[in-house]
Amino acid sequence: MAIYGPKVRSVGTSKYPLRAWGSHIFKRDYFEHSGTSGDVRGAYQDLNVTSTGSGETLRLRGIASGTGVAADGNALNALHATGRVASGGTISENGWLHAIRATLEVAGTTPTPGGKQLAAIRVDSNIVTGATMGDDDAFIAVGDNGATGLTNLFAIEQESGTASATTLTSTYKTATQVGKIGIKCRIGGDTRWILATDVAPTT
User: Fold this and answer.
1) How many CB atoms lie within 10 A of CB 11?
2) DSSP 159-184
């Protein structure tokens, strides 16, 4: 069955939204996977762009339009994804658990996908002129919120070849940096390297 039109389903409007005056969950779904194998997706959505148009498969906006939103150290999140290991649960030795997994995929045979930039994750800011930002404002903020902290900021699987990190040689760096790992990045259109040493810093 084909459905045509600008809107297939809509709940509320910008003028007359569904409203809550206290703690409330507008929508919640419960799913369970009880099988010993097989992948289950709670929701699967595809947006197939077949011409020169553009768009987004999912757009979320958490809008602070009041004064003093997220009081008392609370947060307003457009997206909060949690990968949880419940009490008594474990992940298999070769298994993975991610709160968010972002994959950049290019299909075909020897493709040239084009575009100005392709990335698995892109972070942007959209701040008006004259704004006064706080000292802790950042593109990416990292925090250990539990009783036990993580010891690694990044986990990069590959150290050489065509991956995002490579072993530096004397051709590129000084003698003290030979054999260290350089993480490749692009800054202002130029290639730059972040040095990752295997010697722990001293305090």
Assistant:
1) 8
2) -STTSSEEE--TTTS-GGGTT-EEEE
| 169 close to 178: Cβ distance less than 8 angstroms | yes
Copy the structure tokens of residue 190. 């130029």
CB of 178 closer than 8 Å to CB of 168: yes
Q: Contact, 182 vs 196, CB < 8 A?
A: yes
Of 146, 157, 26, the closest CA to residue 82 belongs to: 146
Would you say the C-alpha torsion 10, 60, 40, 146 has a positive or negative sign?
negative
123-164: per-residue pLDDT in tens? 999 999 999 999 899 999 999 999 999 988 888 776 555 556
The confidence score (pLDDT) of residue 202 equals 72
DSSP letter for 87, please: T
Q: Mind spelling out the 3-state secondary structure of 1-43?
A: CCCCCCCCCCCCCCCCCCCCCCCCCCCCCCCCCCCCCCCCCCC
Question: In whole angstroms, what is the distance from residue 20 CA to residue 23 CA?
Answer: 7
What's the chain's length in residues? 203
Q: Are 78 and 84 in contact (CB under 8 A)?
A: no
Task: State whether residue 195 is helix, strand or coil.
Answer: strand
Which value, in Å, is the radius of gyration of the alpha carbons in the chain? 23
CB 125, CB 137: distance < 8 Å: no
